[in-house]
Write a structure and sequence with these properties.
The complex is a heterodimer of chains A (160) and B (126). With 160 residues, chain A is an all-alpha fold. Chain A has helices at residues 2-15, 47-75, 85-92, 95-123, 127-154. In chain A, helix 2 crosses helix 4 and helix 4 (95-123) packs antiparallel against helix 5. Chain A is elongated and about 95 Å long. Chain B is mainly α. Chain B has a single domain, classed as Fumarate reductase/succinate dehydrogenase, transmembrane subunit (3 helical TM bundles of succinate and fumarate reductases), CATH 1.20.1300.10. Chain B has four helices and no strands. Chain B has helices at residues 10-38, 44-54, 57-85, 93-124. In chain B, helix 3 runs antiparallel to helix 4 (93-124). The longest helix of chain B has 32 residues, at 93-124. In chain B, 23% of the residues are buried. Classes of the chains: A mainly alpha (160), B mainly alpha (126).
């Protein structure tokens, strides 16, 4: 207690006299990164965090969906030699396999598109190149997901 | 190792490289695969015709490569999740990679006959 008061008194003696008064005001120091009218609206979101999380969650689901798919298509019951229009018709007669394939299509396409987006961001150095590669990627992804979804929902086993 | 590079080699970097390469390959196959499956909406003949190419010996080898890429990507993906979410994951990442490689080799040996068997029979007769 006594040490504090004595040191405070010491400061008072040496530094107590202010350099500034009403006629000589202290310079105003602006806060770092102060938002002004010219500051563009913040575009920061948690998009990359959600993307990172999506890769892991969809990855776990895809391990089951895709390895099951490979087992059915390439290993069981004669492997690839049994596949044909009739085989597809037989499987898509069941809503279970329709939903399986639909989930696999969407998750795999989004997982792959986000992966390729990362690869493009890493290696395409010119702004224009990066932009157009990603536009190409997004266009191809949307087209493929919509085409696949349409095929699953409009499949007609009796078209011939 | 060249100076000033972020690449550190060893299990960590090479598993990362292999994960990228297999991921890109799988994604490109996925485009083709959705397109060929879409032929079921064109006609049964068109679909069966394109699926016939999947049954040729050369494409069977490509399928084996696809299985190799998918199995590595799947197993290493589970390892990445363990590194990220398991408290001891980073400490055991090397051991987990060699576990992944071991399981991968076993599954690839197991896939040899189912995936390539019909190609061998076609080439050398049953």
């Amino acid at each position: 207690m006594s040490a504090e008061t004595s040191s405070a008194a010491a400061i008072g003696e040496v530094e107590g006299a202010s350099l500034y008064d009403t006629d000589h005001p202290a310079p105003l120091i602006e806060a770092p990164r102060k938002r002004t009218k010219k500051t563009p609206k913040s575009t920061r979101t948690n998009f990359e965090l959600y993307g990172w999380m999506f890769m892991r969650l969809s990855g776990i689901v895809l391990v089951v969906l895709v390895l099951g798919h490979l087992l059915i298509q390439l290993v069981l019951d004669g492997g690839v030699s049994k596949i044909g229009f009739a085989f597809v018709a037989g499987r898509w007669a069941s809503p279970f396999w329709q939903i399986w394939d639909l989930a696999m299509l969407w998750l795999a396409m989004l997982h792959g598109a986000n992966g390729l987006r990362t690869v493009i961001n890493d290696y395409a150095q010119r702004d224009n190149t990066r932009f157009w590669l990603k536009m190409l990627l997004y266009t191809a992804t949307v087209f493929t997901v919509l085409l696949g979804t349409l095929v699953i929902f409009t499949f007609d086993p009796n078209m011939r | 190792m060249p100076a000033g590079t972020l690449y550190r080699g060893r299990e960590g970097m090479w598993s990362w490289v292999a994960h990228r390469v297999t991921g890109v390959l799988i994604f490109f196959f996925l485009f083709v695969h959705v397109l060929d499956t879409a032929l079921v909406r064109v006609s049964p003949e068109a679909y069966d015709k394109v699926v016939a190419t999947y049954k040729t010996p050369i494409v069977a080898c490509l399928e084996y490569g696809l299985v190799a890429a998918i199995l590595f990507h799947a197993l290493n993906g589970l390892r990445i999740i363990a590194v990220d979410f398991w408290a001891k994951g980073p400490r055991y990442q090397k051991q987990m990679l060699w576990t992944v490689v071991g399981v991968w080799v076993v599954l690839m040996v197991g896939a040899l006959y189912p995936v390539l068997g019909h190609a061998v029979r076609e080439l050398f007769g049953s």
